[in-house]
Prior knowledge:
The chain has six helices and no strands. It is mainly α and 178 residues long. It has one domain. The protein is globular. The protein starts with 8 loop residues before the first helix and ends with a helix.
Amino acid sequence: MTIDAPAGLAPALRTLYLVRFGFAVVWAVLLFLTATEIGPVSGTLLVLYPLFDVAAVVVDSRTSRGGASVALYANIAVSTLAAAGLAFAVTSGIPAVLTVWGAWAVVSGVAQLAVGLVRRSLGGQWPMILSGGISTLAGTSFVLQAGAEGATLSNLAGYAAIGGVFFLVSALRLRSTS
């Protein structure tokens, strides 16, 4: 299944993807600098990331006017639940954070993969499809890391940075196809 893109969708997605890239890179640097423990800054960052995802997906959903809406709405719900779960997990320690983050990464990765597949006729969606698949695998890895001795938050920073690069590549590919 593919969608007929509303006029102006590719430029709007390009802008949204560039904003998501910038946010992910800044967030990743800040988390990496504070990742040794869960403190006020890292705890806030951990809850902020899925909330930013909610806002970005709401903008995406409104822009696409129905295209890929089921997966987008599912992502909004899952990211909202992840933010709430992370608000509690940050008080329980790094293993709890990795478990919640990992579960969120798996489910949101599947949603991102689905949206990318539906939108592939727009061009520039292969990075989103790959990112969704990688997110699913990374999420599983985070859940497994939660049980390991010496688990850290640093890998979450790397995950966000890589995700940001996929948004950048997709934005650049949309530019060449619109």
